[in-house]
Write a structure and sequence with these properties.
This protein is 50% helix and 14% strand. With 214 residues, it is of the alpha/beta class.
Length: 214
């Protein structure tokens, strides 16, 4: 009997292409798709799967937070991250959230299937492509306290912080990043919550005082 898989990514063209490729793999069956973290949770409340193939940068609820909730609510479900982001901090965040594996989107189909089989079997899989970044992050002599502020943030959220400091409105940020105003507002709220800031003014003051964007 094939393993069941939930695809979570906010790019429909990517999902469509991936489903076509996975249809050729006899040991995997795509049970459904989700376009953000909230849809992942909603799907799993109705139907269980063996593995969630999880993107990280998604609207409403990103892959890191979604993984944390999946592992709390559905501990039997395995999570394999598949993302464009391969930096040390992001990989560490995802693994700490409970992910059972991590791949970058530049991998080939053979490695994706290998990773899926590995995590479905109960083992951890980390793409060999990530090892230089992981080793570099581990051996970096820069004090951890100097980089802790970015750890909870995704790359998109870091971009939002920079634009907030530049004084852009939600409408201007939406135009520049080709996102909806509601998505920008969600990112802004997530940033404030993660950095434990009461408002945008406090966030800007904190970033400027600490020179975090220098």
């Amino acid at each position: 009997m094939p393993y069941s898989l939930l695809l979570a990514d906010d790019h429909q063209l990517f999902l469509d292409g991936l489903k076509v490729l996975l249809e050729r793999a006899t040991n995997w069956s795509v049970a459904g798709e989700a376009h953000n973290g909230l849809e992942v949770i909603e799907f799993l409340q109705q139907k269980t799967v063996d593995v969630v193939l999880m993107d990280i940068e998604m609207p409403n609820l990103n892959g890191i937070e979604a993984t944390r909730r999946v592992k709390k609510l559905f501990p039997e479900v395995r999570v394999l991250a598949l993302s464009m982001m391969g930096d040390y901090l992001t990989v560490r965040q995802m693994l700490r959230a409970g992910a059972d594996g991590y791949l970058v989107k530049s991998v080939g189909m053979s490695e994706l299937l290998k990773a899926l089989d590995t995590v479905a079997g109960g083992d951890l899989y980390i793409s060999p492509q990530l090892m230089p970044a992981l080793i570099g992050g581990i051996t970096d002599r820069k004090p951890l306290g100097e980089i802790n502020y970015v750890e909870p943030l995704t790359q998109r959220e870091r971009e939002i912080v920079a634009l907030i400091v530049d004084g852009l409105t939600n409408e201007e940020m939406a135009t520049q990043l080709c996102l909806s105003k509601s998505t920008i507002d969600t990112h802004r709220k997530n940033v404030l919550n993660k950095l434990q800031m009461k408002n945008t003014a406090a966030l800007v003051r904190y970033v400027m005082e600490k020179k975090l964007l220098d």
